[in-house]
Design the sequence.
């Protein structure tokens, strides 16, 4: 059993690095070592899905269900594998069983990859999903993949929220570090389309990049100020994965050592973010505070005057503390608003879709930059005459589940 656990840990690291073949081999060895190891089956099925081998993944998830018939994750993943094979009725049955087993699951997250199907497939998906599943859903996308006609179609089928990777407000950093050719105009346009149709935006940025200059950070601040409010702001700390060009470059340039690379550091297990923490340097805090103020709707003039103020750095520890309290208040406010409106909470729905063994968040969140709920109010933006869409109608939220031990995600 200990050998199987060790193999699963190794496979999990490889899967997070995109080394799916190696992860697959380790999970298969774990299954041979301990045929009753549920985690190995779930992990193996996930890496097979990532390799677009949904028929093989289906068989693995069915085996996982035999081991634990009331395991929600296996039913969810089986539904995904069947859906990829266009076996929609069977997929719907698997999703319904997952919902029966986990009543807190009130939205479906399509989180395996960028959700950018061709129009004919999307039309069939929306029609079948609305009829056979009927729950609000969440997707991951990329700015250039946001098309207003497709967003309108998905909104009618139940699209509720969208996670979009932006990474940086600096065109140079996006291009040179993250191989993203997207312009600010394309990012703002994509966010605007979703805002106009009432889609909740969950936007990912990456900090702690040694190649960023003050000009790059100011560009990120300017982009945050221009994006339509409100939106969730996920500010992650740069993680150096093995074999990635940016990692090799940082090693050559002396910014990191081999112990900072993720196969050794494993930073992603304990910290994605880190902004506003007391351990941050003055230089890091000055931008952490400015970004948070921009996200939460503080006036542009005030933020820029603070950055230019000679005493700003002296005020930073107190400002960072106040900003942390403001973010905590924003989270409480968002959860209260969601409860009053009968909506599920966005973070909880991500958790319900991706966590294993029915674990739900409880107590302080160890990822301080995830679920940076919006404090700012909705600003009425319009583009091309679009009308603001009504919010997705959701069933009443059940009481929170009892706290449970969080199991590590396998993907």
Sequence:
């Amino acid at each position: 059993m200990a050998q199987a656990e060790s193999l699963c840990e190794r496979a999990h690291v490889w899967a997070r690095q995109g080394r799916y073949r190696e992860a697959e081999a380790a999970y298969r060895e774990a299954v041979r070592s301990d045929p009753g190891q549920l985690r190995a089956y779930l992990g193996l099925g996930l890496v097979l899905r990532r390799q677009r081998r949904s028929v093989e993944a289906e068989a693995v998830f069915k085996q996982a269900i035999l081991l634990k018939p009331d395991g929600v994750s296996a039913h969810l993943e089986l539904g995904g594998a069947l859906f990829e094979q266009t076996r929609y009725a069977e997929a719907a049955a698997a999703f319904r069983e997952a919902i029966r087993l986990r009543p807190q699951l009130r939205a479906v997250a399509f989180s395996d990859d960028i959700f950018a199907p061709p129009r004919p497939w999307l039309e069939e998906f929306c029609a079948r999903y609305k009829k056979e599943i009927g729950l609000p859903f969440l997707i991951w996308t990329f700015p250039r993949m946001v098309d207003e006609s497709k967003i309108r179609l998905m909104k009618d089928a139940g699209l509720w929220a969208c996670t979009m990777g932006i990474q940086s407000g600096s065109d140079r950093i996006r291009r040179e570090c993250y191989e993203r050719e997207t312009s600010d105009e394309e990012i703002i346009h994509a966010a605007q389309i979703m805002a106009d149709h009432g889609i909740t935006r969950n936007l990912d940025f990456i900090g702690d990049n040694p190649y960023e200059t003050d000009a790059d950070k100011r560009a990120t601040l300017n982009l945050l100020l221009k994006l339509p409010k409100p939106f969730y702001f996920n500010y992650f700390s740069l993680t150096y994965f093995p074999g990635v060009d940016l990692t090799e470059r940082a090693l050559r340039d002396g910014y990191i050592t081999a112990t900072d690379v993720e196969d050794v550091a494993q930073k992603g297990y304990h910290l994605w973010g880190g902004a506003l923490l007391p351990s941050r340097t003055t230089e890091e805090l000055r931008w952490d505070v400015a970004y948070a103020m921009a996200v939460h709707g503080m006036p542009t003039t005030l933020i820029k005057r603070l950055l230019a103020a000679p005493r700003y750095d002296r005020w930073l520890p107190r400002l960072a503390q106040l900003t942390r309290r403001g973010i905590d208040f924003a989270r409480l406010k968002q959860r209260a608003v969601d409860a009053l409106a009968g909506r599920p909470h966005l973070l909880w729905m991500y958790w319900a879709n991706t966590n294993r063994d029915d674990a739900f968040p409880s107590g302080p969140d160890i990822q301080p930059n995830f679920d940076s709920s919006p404090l700012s109010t909705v600003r009425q933006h319009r583009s091309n005459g679009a009308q603001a869409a009504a919010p997705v109608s959701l069933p009443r939220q059940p009481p929170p589940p009892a706290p449970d031990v969080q199991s590590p995600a396998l993907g």
